[in-house]
């Protein structure tokens, strides 16, 4: 609804209206990344006009833009839209006819009734065709995994030109070609209903103009949904946009199929909507550099004409932080030997430090296996293990860890940043593996192809930024002290390991066998302050 309509009907009681009024009157407005990018996606119709932007945690800008400008749909979403649209007696269409039944003369009412009936009929046909289309996508995904059950990680298939040429994709293309005319006809029928309502609001003094305008806006939302759907599914199935990434997923829990599209490059979009449009933009983050350079982030965001400055840390990392690099731990590709070493190292370390440890994983499966292996031995040492395997929320796990006198918290990607536990409650941080992205993730795979040396130019810088975020969980105040242990020997044996180390502040560094870690940690933490 419009602000004027809201003010008239709700007399200012609507929470959304109050928020909009407060935002319009504010000198400083604080929003999250999602709302900022939603405003950009909606052509600046969500937030008040602004010319100055301070963007905190700016290392998330590429991911936030990708998500905000992406596309996703499921069979459930399509069924939900049809249900909201309704019929001549239910939903939005029923509301339209109900509002106009008494206000219009019979001959005028018959016209709009015929349009709503036509939209309902097109919707019924589209619903059946849409379900058949998603069945075809599901069968394609089953074919791609050779009929095997979906793994615990789910299934994700990037839809490339080569994939569209696959014989199994022909059934998907055929199903969409059969469904598309129905959705196109539905969008057109709804468009005619909207046009009629707009004309009615402008020309007929006997109707409630504000109510009719509101109904026209609601119908327009439906029209935009189907127009957007047609555009993206046309690209995914038949006519891909070279600037978009397309993929299909099957959920590991219920097998639900979803279809996706996302921009291949966001730099031009950020440049257009932020660098060129705003008077001033300040990007701030503790992790915008890799190897001491802003070059990677500048390149990803088309930030060519931007000033940069590195502000020194208020923390004395040389005095507060011991960086322990295990020299003899097996490399991760030796899965069984590596996992046994991780478990043994954690049991010894956490028993010696009486917990107070955050252990970061890149894999939920490894976290689960590790939690099961170390819980019993650490319980005997009086140390509690908190992890995500029992379904506890992130906030609940953090709260339990903070209040524990001897706790170990095991977390995956969501714990690599945003965890703030100052003081002795968190004195030990373990990074089990360097946080490289999964290479066959559709977005990662597509963007990697845009580089001449994708691992060196894309995978390593992305991992370094995440590594620095994880490292930053330990020292939160000037009085904090602790140890960061890296259980991934590639940081020492691979050429790219130097980039990770050079991206960290100047700590006290110890390279030694895993067996010495517990003693070194206890000695470091017990030093006189």
Q: How many E strands? A: 13
Oligomeric state of shown chains: single chain
Radius of gyration, Cα only, in angstroms? 28 Å
Structural class: alpha/beta
Proportion of residues in helical segments: 40-55%
Main beta-sheet annotation: 7 strands, parallel
Intertermini distance: 61 Å
Average predicted local confidence, pLDDT: 91
Shape: elongated
Strand content: 5-15%
Number of helices: 21
- Please give the order of strands in the largest beta sheet: 9-10-8-11-12-7-13
Briefly characterize the structure.
With 529 residues, this protein is an alpha/beta fold. Helices cover 51% and strands 12% of the residues. The protein has helices spanning 3-10, 15-25, 33-41, 61-68, 75-85, 91-101, 106-144, 161-164, 170-203, 209-237, 267-275, 295-300, 317-320, 335-352, 364-380, 394-403, 442-448, 454-471, 490-493, 497-502, 517-525; strands at residues 52-55, 71-74, 155-158, 244-250, 257-263, 280-283, 321-326, 357-360, 384-386, 407-411, 428-431, 482-486, 508-512.
Characterise this structure.
The protein has 529 residues and is an alpha/beta fold. The chain has 21 helices and 13 strands. It has a seven-stranded parallel beta sheet with strand order 9-10-8-11-12-7-13, with helices on both faces. Strands 2-5-4-3 form a four-stranded antiparallel beta sheet, with helices on both faces. Helix 16 (394-403) links the parallel strand 9 and strand 10 (407-411). Helix 6 (91-101) runs antiparallel to helix 10 (209-237) and helix 14 (335-352) packs across helix 15 (364-380). The longest helix is centred in the N-terminal third of the chain and has 39 residues, at 106-144. The radius of gyration is 28 Å and the shape is elongated. It starts with a helix and ends with a helix.
């Amino acid at each position: 609804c419009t602000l004027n309509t809201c003010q008239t009907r709700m007399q200012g009681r609507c929470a959304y209206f109050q928020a909009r009024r407060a935002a319009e009157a504010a000198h400083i407005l604080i929003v999250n990344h999602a709302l900022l990018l939603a405003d950009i996606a909606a052509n600046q119709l969500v937030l008040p006009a602004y010319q100055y932007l301070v963007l905190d945690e700016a290392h998330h800008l590429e991911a936030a833009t990708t998500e905000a400008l992406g596309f996703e749909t499921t069979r459930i979403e399509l069924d939900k839209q049809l249900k909201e649209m309704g019929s001549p007696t239910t939903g939005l269409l029923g509301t339209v006819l109900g509002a106009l039944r008494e206000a219009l003369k019979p001959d005028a009412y018959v016209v709009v009734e015929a349009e709503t009936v036509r939209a309902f009929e097109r919707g019924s046909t589209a619903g059946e065709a849409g379900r058949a289309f998603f069945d075809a996508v599901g069968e394609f995904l089953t074919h791609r995994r050779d009929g095997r059950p979906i793994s615990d990680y789910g299934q994700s298939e990037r839809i490339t030109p080569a994939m569209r040429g696959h014989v199994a994709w022909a059934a998907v293309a055929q199903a969409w070609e059969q469904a598309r005319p129905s959705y196109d006809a539905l969008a057109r029928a709804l468009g005619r209903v909207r046009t009629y309502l707009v004309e009615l609001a402008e020309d007929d003094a006997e109707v409630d103009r504000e109510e009719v305008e509101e109904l026209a806006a609601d119908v327009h939302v439906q029209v935009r949904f189907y127009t957007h759907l047609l555009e993206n599914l046309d690209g995914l199935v038949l006519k891909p946009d070279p600037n978009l990434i397309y993929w299909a997923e099957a959920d590991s829990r219920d097998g639900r199929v979803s279809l996706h599209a996302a921009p291949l490059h966001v730099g031009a979009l950020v440049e257009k909507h932020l660098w060129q449009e705003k008077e001033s933009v300040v990007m701030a983050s503790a992790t915008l550099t890799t190897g001491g350079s802003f070059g990677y982030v500048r390149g990803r965001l088309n930030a060519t004409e931007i000033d940069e400055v590195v502000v020194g840390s208020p923390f004395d990392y040389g005095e507060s932080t011991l960086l322990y690099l295990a020299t003899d731990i097996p490399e991760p590709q030796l899965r069984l030997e590596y996992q046994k070493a991780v478990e043994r190292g954690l049991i010894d370390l956490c028993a010696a430090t009486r917990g107070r440890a955050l252990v970061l994983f890149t894999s939920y499966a490894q976290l689960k296996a590790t939690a099961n292996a170390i819980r019993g031995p650490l319980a005997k040492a009086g140390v509690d293990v908190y992890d995500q395997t029992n379904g506890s929320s992130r906030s609940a796990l953090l709260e339990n860890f903070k209040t524990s006198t001897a706790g170990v918290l095991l977390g995956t990607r969501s714990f690599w940043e945003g965890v703030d536990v100052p003081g002795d409650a968190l004195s030990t941080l373990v990074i089990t593996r360097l946080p490289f992205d999964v290479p066959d993730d559709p977005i990662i795979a597509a963007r990697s192809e845009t580089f001449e040396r994708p691992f060196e130019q894309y995978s390593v810088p992305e991992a370094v930024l995440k590594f620095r975020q994880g490292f930053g969980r330990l020292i939160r105040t000037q009085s904090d002290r602790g140890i960061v242990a890296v259980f991934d020997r590639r940081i020492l044996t691979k050429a790219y390991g130097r980039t990770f180390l050079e991206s960290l502040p100047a700590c006290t560094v110890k390279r030694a066998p895993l067996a010495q870690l517990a003693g070194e940690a206890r000695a470091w933490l017990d030093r006189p302050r």
